[in-house]
Give the backbone structure.
Amino acid sequence: MTPFQRYIAEEIAVDHADGLLSRREALRRLGLLGIGLAAASSLLAACARDESPPSTGPGTPAAPPPGSADTVPTQEITFPGPDGRTMQGAWADAADARGGVLVIHENKGLNDHIRSVAGRFAGAGYSALAIDLLSEEGGTASFADPAAATAALSAVPPERFTADMKAAVGELSRRLPGLPLEAVGFCFGGGMTWLLLASGEPRLATAVPFYGPLPEGADFSGSRAAVLAIYAEKDQRVNATRDAATAALERAGLVHEVVTFTGADHAFFNDTGPRYDPAAAAEAYRLVLEWFEQHPT
């Protein structure tokens, strides 16, 4: 099992422990990852909680998501990928762009929530490209079952993810010549953001991984990006790699800031999910835009 497969499997188990998935559904999703019943049952037991599941926050946002008032509609695009492949994505064009943002989705693939995030960045002055990392499989929309899309992502080798993200950075550079480029990813996409930094991608001015798992042996020495790493206090699983991420940033000499939101949980920025935290999301969005402005090159 690769590190990202393990991350996705553990995420399913934690969702079950928090009461977000029934045991039957959790076992079904783990089965789609190729995990047998005995191993899946052991994983669920290992992630079980001794006490009642914690509060996961409001199911319906109490206020509009941050930046939603200025959201720019996205359009579906294709662009050249590695080895002659065609990549898919959602493009949001800012009226007077100050930069471009690569938006990297969660383990559910490119969905409407991630499209809305791209549109919000465009509304704030940063044209955005939300990549579909399932392009080679026909795109996220080709999966009727979101759990099957997650399973497909878990089977992709990290090298392909890296090549696909570099192609997306190239597409941003082509559309926005001379402007600073940023990368922002959430959960699984946060891990992809770390992976892109570890690849030595030199074209990013900034990178913002939201509660993303750190790739094993991450070395950021080839990057020049200023990194804003965002974590959630209750997200113990991802927080276990926070010190290692900080140490890797320091070894590489990168400008960085590590922020942990008190009282927030994993995926707190996703306004369509059960762990959404409106206050933390609004503050995180403010910090991200401020980070872009502070590190324009």
